[in-house]
Structures are given as structure tokens and as C-alpha cells.
User: What shape does this take?
Amino acid sequence: MPATTPPTQARVVVVAGPSGSGKSRLTRRLGVPTINLDDFYKDGDDPTLPMVELAGGDPVVDWDSPESWNAADAVRALATFCAAGAAEVPTYDIATSRRTGMHRVSLDGSHLVVAEGIFAQEIVTECRRLGVLADAVCVTQHPAITFVRRFTRDLREHRKPPFFLLRRGLHLALAQRKIVERARSLGCRVVDGDTAYAELSRLI
Assistant: This one.
């Protein structure tokens, strides 16, 4: 990832965790500017997208692999935000698997920006190297609770066909421990949502 100008206005709080673990709820409670890292997914027709075999069907795009996501673009946007206090970031439609436009995120008087997403742990090292990292947490809870909340949310938002969501949900439930351990190995503190809120509120 490219080097950039040192930050002058803001620092980054990274919020990682399995899909459905409560990251978005935490960021809403914190009430600070947020950059949704899931908006940096690759488009669905990108030839570099990874594939995975899920139980009960043909191989599909592995949207839970970091290779389906553009970390370099995410870090550049955060570096710009920290230096300038605002940045233009993509708007991504998960149902159609593509970027649909751009939108502006501004500091609005805060000294922090939350970078939240299922691949957030992948940028911790680079944010620390650039001197913009304020903290990094991985939000987690029991896999059964995560499964139910994720499946309910994805059905409600029509993110993908129901059968795909079920297959993906079972796959992620089995993989949750590995996901959390990877986040820990990359520099995230593993906490539940309420603990994360209490600790990050002190920074705010």
C-alpha cells in the first residue's frame, strides 16, 4: 500500500468482527463519522474475485475473503480523511455486487473516524505504520447469536438469495473462531459489543 502525507486532523478507530457480530450497531452508538469498509468490495464481474465451495451447491464468489475487497483503496481513503478531514468514498450495493456511486464523509468536529467492516483487521498494520491508528477492536459474540442476527438482517435487506445466505451463514458459523483469531493476530483487541462501546467512548 502506498505511503501518504502524515495526518493533521483525525485518527482511525478500526472496528472488525465477523459478519453479524454487531459492528454497525456499535458504530451507531459511538456517533462519530464512519467509513464503511464494505463499500470497498470489488464489483461482481471483477476477474480477480476468489471462489469458494459452500455446502449444498456449486462454487460461488467468496465474499468473505479479503481478496474480494480492495484494501489499498480503503487505506488511501482513510489517509485522505485523516489529513483533510473529509473524503469521497464509494457507495456499494451488496444485492447487485457493484459500486453505484460516491459519497462524501466529513469529520464534522470529531477527532476520530470509525473504519468498520468484516475486513477491517486487514488494514490495522498499515494504519499503525502511517501513524493514524487510535485503536482497533474485533467485536464478537456466540456463533449461534451471530448466525441468527446475520441471517435475519441479510434476508430483511435482500442482500442475496435465501439459499445462498443460508449456505454462507453455516460456513461463517464454522469459521468464526478462525476469523476472530486472525483479527487478534493482526492487532485487534477481541471484545464484546458493550465492552467495546465503553472503552471506545473514553477516546471520544
